[in-house]
Amino acid sequence: MKTFQTKDFDIQSYSERIQNSPCFICEMLSGNNPHHIIYQDESAVVFLNKYPSLYGYVLVAPCKHKEQVTSDFAKAEYLALQKLIYEVSEAIKKVVPMERIYVLSLGSQQGNAHVHWHLAPLPPGVPFEKQQFEALKIEDGILEISETELAQLAQQIHDAMNGS
């Protein structure tokens, strides 16, 4: 299993930025906020978390700006996204050793309002007291992963989604 150093993360600057900047997902989709995209179709996008606390941490979002986790979707749209979340989770499992994958929808009307789901693989052997929300915290730093490694990881997950 790969290990990475962590680097400091300025949570205060991040919080200010997300509350005072355009939607990061809409900006990414318009080409103004580069991320490592794993998969995209007309309805959804899958990409690596830019500030990962765990290796293989992925986000899934609808391409259309929606803010409510359920009520902004027709039932069929929501279920299609959940199917994609399942497929991406299974692909991550093929690439990243994990004990469990956490699936959450986080965000706020005050920042990161574009609804998205977090798929965060918990590595095997993490002590219980450092699991769950403790494993997702970024206040103590984020993983320091090179752009080359991130690109390779995105490609591996993409390939696993396609059965390669």
For the termini, the CA-CA separation is: 21 Å
CATH domain topology: HIT family, subunit A
Name of the CATH superfamily:
HIT-like
Strand order of the largest sheet: 2-3-4-6-5
One letter per element, helices H and strands E, the order comes to EHHEEEHEEHEH
Helix count, DSSP H or I runs of 4 or more residues: 5
Number of domains: 1
Describe the structure.
With 164 residues, the protein is α+β, with helices and mostly antiparallel strands. The protein has a single domain (6-159), classed as 2-Layer Sandwich (HIT family, subunit A), CATH 3.30.428. Helix content is 34%, strand content 18%. It contains five helices and seven strands; from the N terminus they run βααβββαββαβα. The protein has helices at residues 11-20, 24-29, 75-95, 133-136, 147-161, and strands at 6-7, 37-40, 44-48, 58-62, 100-105, 117-122, 142-143. Helix 3 (75-95) crosses helix 5.
Name the features:
single chain, 164 residues, alpha+beta, HIT family, subunit A, 7 strands, 18% strand
Can I get a quick summary?
The protein is an alpha+beta fold and 164 residues long.
Secondary structure topology:
Blueprint: E1 6-7, H1 11-20, H2 24-29, E2 37-40, E3 44-48, E4 58-62, H3 75-95, E5 100-105, E6 117-122, H4 133-136, E7 142-143, H5 147-161
Antiparallel strand pairs: 1-7, 2-3, 3-4, 4-6, 5-6
Helix pairs in contact: 3-5
